[in-house]
Design brief:
By secondary structure, the protein is mainly alpha-helical. The chain is built from 12 helices and no strands.
Length: about 325
């Protein structure tokens, strides 16, 4: 009696496993040197602002501590080694804490923008017809308004209510006044930017949702009797994750720039708190006498914008090769 053993084909071992869309996208991203450099710079800046700065603050370094006897100390002096500003405040801590504010405003506003834009645009694209057209005409009308002017007016309206809330938290609930006032500065600016920043995201998502709603897998979901809500949030919106990530990455530097613009004209973060825009505005007053006060925050600001833009361009090319300039 003989036994036969099953043998695999000779080339079975050489069959390659399939790779996912995200794995392929990451491989393409790694080949883009500028995008990888931008990603590394972004990570380093986030570490400096949100990890190193709090550690330095716990050691006693204070961004708002003034020393008028040590004004405009050159690089190499001061606790942080980057000198001091016109009031003797440590420039390193001012720049790092300013980066916290600028990045928090941009990141939080982007998250709000993505949430509102994806839901609104997804509904408009999926519903379509007259309802979808009316929803997009509202977006077109808001886009026709001057963005910065509307944001400024919207911020002023919100600020009063936020100030009242901050007073309640400090006086009635006993919260730390420095922490409350610092983050109270963020809320009006973040809401104002996100309140009108989601419009472009809504248009992008609407176009993608309208196209996806005609695909076979959506028709199959409808034939199975799935609810419109389930189809939209479980089938259509997840398929737009790539474009949403790309747009969000490119939106962050835009919102950093908006925050800097508002702070530069005195409508952003209120003193003694700082942001990169506020620091640049203060440094511009001493451009002829002390360039360092302007140069250091300006370099950090510009480096961050370039890094996010390089990373966003790289993600666009990686996630959507057809849109690649190559």
């Amino acid at each position: 009696m003989t036994s036969t053993a099953k043998t695999l084909p000779a080339d079975a071992a050489s069959i390659e496993k399939g790779s996912s869309l995200w794995a392929d996208a990451f491989l393409r991203l790694k080949q883009n040197k500028l995008a990888m450099l931008g990603g590394i710079i972004v990570i380093l800046i986030l570490i400096l602002c949100f990890i190193v700065a709090p550690i330095l603050a716990m050691t006693g370094m204070d961004a708002n501590a003034q020393d008028l006897t040590n004004r405009f100390a050159p690089i190499g002096e001061g606790k942080g080694g980057l000198g001091t500003d016109q009031l003797g405040r440590d420039l390193l801590m001012r720049v790092l804490e300013g980066g916290q504010i600028s990045l928090l405003v941009a990141i939080l506003a982007t998250l709000m923008t993505v949430t509102i834009g994806v839901i609104y645009g997804g509904i408009a694209g999926y519903v379509g017809g007259r309802t979808g057209n009316i929803m997009m005409r509202i977006v077109d009308g808001l886009l026709a308004m001057p963005f910065l002017i509307i944001v400024i007016l919207f911020r002023e309206i919100i600020s009063g209510h936020v100030d009242d809330l901050a007073k309640i938290l400090i006086d009635d609930w006993g919260w730390n006044d420095n922490t409350v006032l610092r983050f109270a500065n963020l809320i009006p600016l973040t809401i104002a930017i996100a309140g009108f920043g989601w419009l472009s995201m809504g248009r992008i998502v609407r176009s993608s949702a309208a196209s996806l709603s005609q695909q076979e897998f959506v028709e199959a979901a409808r034939s199975l009797g799935l609810s419109h809500r389930r189809i939209l949030f479980r089938h259509i919106l997840p398929n737009m994750l790539g474009p949403v990530i790309i747009y969000a990455t490119l939106t962050i530097p835009s919102f950093i720039l908006y925050e800097a613009t508002l702070s530069f004209i005195g409508l952003g973060i209120e003193p003694p708190n700082s942001s990169w825009g506020k620091l640049i505005q203060e440094g511009a007053n001493f451009l002829e006498t002390n360039l360092t006060v302007l140069a250091i925050p300006a370099v950090m600001f510009s480096l961050t914008l370039f890094a996010f833009n390089f990373l966003g361009d790289g993600l666009r090319d990686a996630l959507d090769p057809r849109a690649s300039k190559d």
